[in-house]
Amino acid sequence: MHPSQILEAGSGLFTVIDIYKHEIISLFKGEIIDAVEADKRAKQNHDRYFINLLDGSIMDSMHTHCFAKYANDTKGTSNSPFKNNAKIGLDDDGNVCIIATKRIKSGSEIFCGYGKPYWKKHQ
C-alpha cells in the first residue's frame, strides 16, 4: 500500500497493471457479523470497513487482510480533484468486489464510491 492521493485518506489502493472497464479488481474479505454485533462496533466507532450484504448481514474488513478495503472514495470529506473509477458490486458467484467502471492505467489509484449513508455517518 502507498499513501492515497486524497489528503488525510490514509493508504490507497494502486494498480501495477492496466485494468479494463468491467474487470474485477479485487474481492472484499472480512468477518461476517449480525446486526447486533454491527451496532456494538458502530457505537465504538469501529464501522469504517462495513459492507452491507444482500442477506442482511454485514462484512467487516477492518481486521482482515484484503486489498479492496484500501480503495478510497473521492466523494468523501475532502474536496478531491479525483474521480471514482470503480464501484463496489458482486461477481458472478455473489462475492462482493471492486469492479472497474472505466479503463484504469498501470500506476493509478483505485477509487470507488461508499454511498451517501456512509458519508452522512462519518463526516
Automatic annotation (TrEMBL):
Pfam assignment, any one: SET
SUPFAM superfamilies assigned: SET domain (SSF82199)
Top-level division of the source organism's lineage: Bacteria
Residues covered by the SET domain: 10-115
Protein name, as recorded: SET domain-containing protein
Lineage of the species this protein comes from: Bacteria, Pseudomonadati, Bacteroidota, Flavobacteriia, Flavobacteriales
